[in-house]
Amino acid sequence: MKLISKLSRLVSQYRFFILLTVLIPLIISNPLWSRDAQAQTSDKLIGQWRSHVQFITGGFAEVKDLEFMYSFNLGGTMTESSNYDGAPPVPPAYGIWRQLDENEFQAKYEYYATQPPENATMDDVWGGWIPSTRGVLTENITLNDDGKSFISTITYEAFDKDNNLVVDGGGIATGKGMKLAFD
């Protein structure tokens, strides 16, 4: 009984040190702390890109001068904005990306489309637009061997406010991108 009581007191006194002895090796060896695990992908795509996008099908097929600007980040997140984000006001798209093969990548990003409030006048429009749909783009990217350009195919899906797929709102596109760099 005395031995158990002594051990209990000893464990109480040194509980913090015992906890650290167990936790420190776990924290250090955890793959979440390593750069490789954070990147989850190759560094080849990380950076800023500009792409000319041409829809082959869907409502955007008539647009001939569509461009996307991308920022691919360490850790697999990304942001996309187009030269048409101001018409109507649309926030940037946010998403994720991953490496599929040596020079093959996939990005999936979403944005919210907006529309003016019902019966809005020009004065009302400056007060803000309201959400109307959500767009989901899945892009398969093939990076050229030089690492400075890519070609891609994009599948676009539109969803209404109730998260129902808008069948006639989507489309298929191709993209040709160049990595931004100081010359």
TrEMBL record:
Q: Which domain of life is it from?
A: Bacteria
Q: What is this protein called?
A: Lipocalin-like domain-containing protein
Species per Swiss-Prot/TrEMBL record: Cyanobacterium stanieri LEGE 03274
